Amino acid sequence: MKIGFSQLRLVIAGFSVASMVCPASRAAQTNRDPQNSGPSTTVVIDAGHGGFDRGGIPGQRIPEKEMTLDVAQRLKGVLTAAGYRVVMTRDSDVFVPLATRVAIANSYRNAIFVCIHFNSAKRVGAGGIETYFYSRESLPLASAIHYYVAGGAPSANRGVRRRGFYVLRKTGIPAVLVECGFLTNPTEGAYAESTSYRQKLATEIAAGIRGRFSVTSTSSRTGVATDESIPLQSYIDQTKVSSSERSGSKRSHKRSSRSKSSKKKKSSKTLDSEASATARKQEAE
Ligand SMILES: [Zn+2]
User: Fold this and answer.
1) How far is the CA of 8 from the centre of ligand 1 (A)?
2) Which residues contact 76 (CB under 8 A, 6 or more apart)?
3) CATH code where residue 203 lies
4) CA distance 2 to 251
5) Pairing of strands 235-237, 129-133
6) 118: CA distance to ligand 1 center in Å?
7) N or C: which end of the chain has fewer CB within 10 A?
């Protein structure tokens, strides 16, 4: 488990992300408004799975697709009330291909993309909140959302992770994927089934969206922060790129992101290997 990098390391990690952004993403960046042009007013919310894609692992009791849609709709309500323009990649129990979700996100300028998922694992004890990002510009959004969601949840903090999920890799706007807990964990599953907890998740994600410009690497590590100062969250590079590869070509990293989970699993610690099976499927596509 690699949580616990120093703040300095976090900053370095943030910059190393930039050096590994794939050429396609870089090209997209040049066509975008600079991040300091003002707060984004459009939030594209992506409820994971849907339709025949139930999400989670085979035999899982709680359908992930229903939990993700409910949280997404609650998030839509919170953000709309706060004045944001909200676009949903799905607003009912339908299957939407990942490429379509990405196309929807990329059709809005000055927008951000937030994917809602829940985790699952064969080991029922696996639990916690984790937040994923891919491009450097997505790190502040991931950090802010994770700060609020993990901070407001009774679950373990599994950290902010960089990983090449399709929906994160292919979007040209700041994009984050939140895993709101393990539905296969009895305690976290019970939370997820609670209306009030799903509302809280939506509220915390919205707080992260509002606070994304306030992420700073200079705050103390005490965990105490105001709305004006959100500490950069613990960051785990789940791509498992070695130090030599880290400074090497972007292409090698891209291949790494696309490699199958079996290969990745061999070099991963326990926590990593528990990551959502469906998420890994997404990553491979
Ligand atoms: Zn999922």
Assistant:
1) 32
2) 45, 86, 88
3) 3.40.630.40
4) 25
5) unpaired
6) 5
7) N
pTM for this structure?
0.72
Pairwise pLDDT comparison (166 vs 258), residue with the higher score: 166
Structurally, how many domains does the chain consist of?
Answer: 1
Domain membership of residue 169 (yes or no) is: yes
Question: Per-residue pLDDT tens for 135-194?
Answer: 999 999 999 999 999 998 889 999 999 999 999 999 999 999 999 999 999 999 999 999
Q: What is the mean pLDDT of residues 259-275?
A: 41
- CA 117 / ligand 1 centre spacing (Å): 4
Q: How far, in Å, is the centroid of ligand 1 from the Cα of 68?
A: 8
- Could you tell me the distance, in angstroms and rounded to a whole number, from the CA of residue 255 to the centre of ligand 1? 22
Task: Give residues with Cβ within 8 angstroms of 280, minimum separation 6.
Answer: 261, 264
CA–centroid distance, 38 to ligand 1, in Å, is 31
Mean pLDDT of 59-82: 97
Q: How far is the CA of 173 from the centre of ligand 1 (A)?
A: 20
Between 263 and 154, name the one with better pLDDT. 154
Which structural domain, as residue segments, surrounds residue 201? 5-241
Are the CB atoms for 119 and 182 separated by under 8 Å? yes
283 confidence band (pLDDT: 50, 70, 90): low
Contact indicator for 182, 188 with CB cutoff of 8 Å: yes
- Quick one: tokens of 135? 């491009």
Task: Answer whether residue 249 is part of any domain.
Answer: no
Compute the distance from residue 226 Cα to the ligand 1 centre, in Å. Answer: 31
